[in-house]
Amino acid sequence: WSSDVCSSDLRTRLLPFLDVVVGGDVAPLKPDPSMVKSALATLGVASSEAAMIGDSEVDVATAHAADLSIVLLGHGYVRGKLAEASADAIADGFAALPAALESLGFRIGG
To answer: Which one of 3, 20, 62, 106 is CB 3.0 to 4.6 Å from 31, fit for a cystine?
Structure first.
């Protein structure tokens, strides 16, 4: 992670919650699906068992290229209307993510 995006202290605190981190330093940038596919392969997860959470049209294009469902966060960088961004679901914020993922058939929690 580049230092201009995330401080080393924050990176250190977040790492215990992440199983894999893949970025533009090891794969082509989005919308190329290589980063996403690399993360899924590392985790041993099929695209049908995962969803991408994004906040831009580029994230939607990346998810589609990786054959993933995409939930678009409404507070992001969408230039037009959210409904026109071709996302599978839209969440108004992080608190709405579980319901958005469940609407796509993902089981949330234990």
So the answer is: 62
